[in-house]
Amino acid sequence: MSSPSPSSVASDVCMSLQDVTISYGSFEAVKNVYMDLPRGKVTAFIGPSGCGKSTVLRALNRMNDLIPGCSLKGRVIFDQHDLYDKRVDPVEVRRRIGMVFQKPNPFPKSIYENIAFGARINGYRGDMDELVERSLRKAAVWDECKDKLKESGFSLSGGQQQRLCIARAIATEPEVILMDEPCSALDPISTLKIEETMHELKRSYTIMIVTHNMQQAVRVADMTAFFNAEAVEGGTGKVGYLVEFNETENIFNSPSQQSTLDYVSGRFG
Amino acid sequence: MSFLTPPTTSAFGERLTLHYDPGLKRNRFNQIANAIAAFFAALAVVPLFLVLIYVLIQGGRLISLQLLTQLPPAPGLTGGGIGNAILGTIIVTLIAAMIAIPVGVGGGVYLSEYARNGWFSRFVRFGNDVLAGVPSIICGVFVYSLIVATRIFFDQSYSAMAGGIALSVLMLPTVIKTTYEGLLLVPQEMRMGAYGVGASRFVTITRIALPAAFTPIATGVVLGIARAAGETAPLIFTALFSPFWPDGVFHPIATMSVLIFNFAIMPYEAQNELAWAASFVLVIMILGANLLARWISHATRS
Amino acid sequence: MAAQRYRSLKAVNPSLNAVAETRAEIRWNVHADRHQTRMRSAPSSDAFTLRRRPPQEKLIDIGFRQLTLLLAASVGIVLIGIFLTVFSGAKEAMATFGLKFLTTSAWDPVNEQYGALIAIYGTLVTAVLSLLIAVPIGLGTAIFITEDLLPRRLREVIGLLVELLAAIPSVVLGLWAIFVMEPAIRPFLSLLHRTLGWTPFFATAPQGPGTAPAILILVVMVLPIITAISRDALNQVPIELRQGAYGVGTTRWGAIFNVILPAAVSSIMGGVMLSLGRAMGETMAVTMIIGNSLNFSVSLLAPGNTIASMLANQFGEADGIQVSALMYAAVVLMILTFVVNVMAQWIVRRLSLRY
User: Fold this and answer.
1) Which domain holds residue C251?
2) ipTM metric
């Protein structure tokens, strides 16, 4: 069902999913995922609605713990640990694997405090002003913010808010940044800016991004995973599964699965 | 049928002009119903005006520095003031707030942030509604039996502490409910943002969720305090009354509400007047708190 | 290879030229990046000292959860405490007087004979009659300030005034009732007595404190509650429902009676039940104006008594079995208000599923 990961990246694996099945209550949202996510690259998760790509992404830093009834079978290996081992603290996981959400969600605090919040709880000991500036610069939103650091995060436009949220995520210097459809609530110009930001971030972080927008996957991702969903006998809903995971150009130009080809050429989804 | 040449009568036999006809049965009925609703609204507002006018005139004309700072006179004598009762109301209400706010906010946090709609949280929410409906005099009976009759505090029976605890029982459901409902209004995405940068639940709740819900919680708490400050029934046999200045929190204490009750039913003019004066001070304080609550919720909303 | 890749990618998106340049540049940097990544994950160069959570932080997290759990449980503890206290206090009187306590009207501390009929009757009569008066007025007011009969500002002012009326302490209303309301309405009550004196309800001449003034002051007290709850209920009726009614050509009151009120009826009924509970438990204003009579009288113009006012008057000075008898009365009051409040919640939950 799922294709093995390409050997070219196996040497430097950041996260590895081994037979991961995620359920909401008794309903299986996504089933039997095997994946080796490479370090220092951008990996895009694409697929039709309800295929479980966001669920898989949220499983990578245990965000699903916060959804009542959500459970995971299988192993998610990161830094030689199984993230779902009983001894692992999900809070520590999230300190090393940051996240940017679908809708911009700045805290009801000043722009400065939005950035400093995460750094403080991570015990940052350095120069806070410098960190705030560096993070905002990296997220390409410094110019818009530098004169109103004391103003509320809500005073920014939607695209700026999202870049503020990216700055907030990188201020804690995580090893991995997860992005759950970061541009879906934004206009095309803001989207372009976020994508430029992502190109900058690739230099220092491993990024995984869920996107509905195939062109976005082509523009930003080195690797692409295509998820699909199909109805199962006796089940109430569709169960998602990983169809194909390969370098982006292979997924879009010479996919090995027919359903991938159908999807990337716009025949369904 | 053609819409270009409208028929002059409909199938229901009515005239079909579009002019308003006050003689129609439905329109007459409307007029009468409007009038009745207006009359009822007037009836509802009139008592407020009458009460306010009397309290402001009867009580306001007596207000002086002496009245606000002196002790009440012995029965039969004139002069004096309600200074000890004003101070006592503040002390007892503060004790109540210091108990009810932490307990209530904590309980509300549990219900909204931790509870997973199991039997326990349903029981607590149900119990909270029941507790809100328990008559205030029963709170007084409860605290009397628990604290006053058992002389639990340094062998003291009636005390400001007992009164404050009785009022806190009364405030508790309000604080829990407003905290719970205020936190429910905080969007889940905001909490996710905090978890996403590695915040623990404790940090997420205390640094993100509670500050975001500050306005509704503060509004509810201020209203709860205002309501408690005016309560009398739970105080009559817990805080009792005292003609003297407050003497620590483990002795009986005067409060404005009990003063009004005691002095209103005394057959002395001077005491009756002090009751009006205390009403004036109490009403001004409570209306002030209500307007403050309103201001909090307006100022931060915009 | 990269060139070939981008050429073919244009099949997906022909406008990728700008991005392609950036990509080439980034490819070029890949080695440096990897090096940097490794450097950062080494703990020695980490400026973030709390990447690993210290045990005390975890302890705070768990401790805070347990603390809030305990605080939430305090509601249940207090509630059970109230029930236990009052029940255990009432046990002696329950054993002595049994259910006869509910149906006899003797209240005789000298001979230690107690029956709560006067107080129970008074509690029910004052509460029910005050609601009979307050519900139509409150509902009418709520309709008046939710439907577009008035300019918006005026409606808001009336709503504010009614809410402020709810904030006035009951003891102040009691004071007002003694010195202002009761003298003012006495001529009307006398008129009632003269014209309707042949019925048992108005058989006695009004002479100051009595059940009728107590009912009126209760009306003043529950009116804001009913108005506020009805107003909220009416405001929550979906606008589509209103538009639907007006769309088929009904008049304002046609819409109100046929569509809006039926849609809001569950919340309004719930509010009415809550007010009933409040009216039964209301103490101060009633105790100041009802006369606290120990003699049974059906007449509304005669002094009466309620359980709450009996408690307020006697509990502080009672001893012996009188305390227990008062506790027994308190049990009755608690059960009454409990039943009414639970019914209120039940009504709201049951009927609110309809639209």
Assistant:
1) 96-354
2) 0.85
